[in-house]
Amino acid sequence: MTANPPSHTVFYDGDCPLCRSEMGVLMRDNRAGRLRFVDIARPGFEAAALGVTQAALMARLHVLREDGRWLVGVPAVQAAYAATGHTRIAAALAHPVLARLAGPAYDWLADHRYRLPRWLLRLVHLHAGRCAPDGACRTH
User: Fold this and answer.
1) Is the per-residue pLDDT at 118 higher than 90?
2) Angle at CA of residue 26, ends 55 and 45, nearest 5°
3) Which of 70, 69, 16 is nearest to 41 (CA)?
4) Dihedral angle over CA of 126, 31, 93, 22, nearest 10
5) What Cα–Cα distance (Å) separates residue 109 from each residue in 50, 97, 112, 121, 130?
6) Residue 38 CB: number of other CB atoms within 10 A?
7) What is the pTM of this model?
């Protein structure tokens, strides 16, 4: 089966353990090739060429759609999960009650992602398939 050309480009912070873990899930499930991933923490990445600042990209997950429209924060998460077949997660984030909670929760996680406790990161890594049930985690 031939992969489709990417419909979205996901710009993520590759220095963030939480971000890397979630991107690992999305990369693993990107079987149709609908997403392209760009690690904005890599040396040589130029945000200015995209018409956005590095600070803005580092603050929240950004997805650039094929039509040139930016999605930021929860809408970016929804688009990425929907593109990889996680339609229930995407739909849940759009549910009116959950949407009211998802925005502030996402903002808090994004703002504190480098200070999250180790137990939470281990839980996320387990979810992403990077840890064995005994808690032994592979590093990147």
Assistant:
1) no
2) 30
3) 16
4) 30
5) 25, 19, 5, 12, 20
6) 15
7) 0.81
Q: How many CB atoms lie within 10 A of CB 15?
A: 14
Answer left, alpha or beta for residue 74, where phi above 0 means left and psi between -120 and 50 means alpha: alpha
Across the strands, what pairs with 94? Answer: none
Residue 137: what pLDDT?
43
Contacts of 51 (CB under 8 A, 6+ apart): none
Q: 37 forms bridges with which residues in the sheet? A: 10
What is the residue extent of each domain of the chain?
Answer: 8-127
Rounded Cα–Cα distance for residues 19 and 35 (Å): 16
pLDDT over 50 (residue 29): yes
For 48-101, the pLDDT digits (tens) are 999 999 999 999 999 999 999 999 999 999 999 999 999 999 999 999 999 899
